[in-house]
Design a protein that fits this description.
296 residues, Rossmann fold, UDP-galactose 4-epimerase, domain 1, 2 domains, two-stranded parallel sheet, 39% helix
Length: 296
Amino acid sequence: MNRVLMTGAAGYVGHRLARRLAGDGIAVTALLRPGSDRSRLAKVPGLTVREHDGDLDALVAILADAKPEAVFHLAGKYVREHARADVAGLMRDNILFGVELLEAMRAAGVNRLVHAATYFQHMDGSAYRPLNLYAATKQAFEDMLSYYVAVHGFSATTLVLYDVYGGGDWRRRLIPAILAALRSGEAMPIPGDDPALDLVYVDDVVEAFMVAASLLIENPDQVAGHRFAVAPGRRCTLSEILAAFERRAGKPVPIKKGAWPAPARTLTVPWQGPPVPGWQPQISLDEGIRRLLAEA
């Protein structure tokens, strides 16, 4: 790869992928919404930032000017339990924007896409059973993508992401909450049950995207038209994760158990898709925790 365009570069996984691409000497054009937080992208060397304000002709011009060999599509809106006010944003960000991107790629003669999906699309390990409306909108985009593959000759691959964690994570997620509880000594609220999680370190996730894009360019028969699981080596329960942090930190994680009930809909059996050819997670949970505590 020499030139790529990516969406979602302001997000956690996206900005880590942008840093990796730029660090490898690849020219990166980041497509952002107006008003997106660019502060974390300031440290990405040589990054070109372009804004998409909803004008499709302008988006075609951006693609034509960037001339990317591949597009990484990571942008999206996540809401676990949506309210009525969230519906328009979910449709706009997860479906409409994605289709506009595909149409602009078609018009600009760009046809390679690596797309991020979610294991929330596979409740109970089903081929497709959405956990929530967010997952349903992600599936709807994949259905749109299948049209561009079938009719316009797109070469696309989908990476199904699980629970991504790592250093510098500003999101309101479990692992940052554990680190904050260890630092402050204040009890972290947790549910009354012991849910299982599928944790994958962010560097492993970035590597999966790099491998998939390289194969899409150099050996497309291996990945085009396929979906791959960027999954951990094994699942861990919340109690196992807390115990692993306590072993590494040498002190207990303060918790307040039963602070909220378990959600009515939850993932019990994750989707067991194949990994990206030539990729396997390299960073164990223990090693990931060691890195996090060293950075704290």
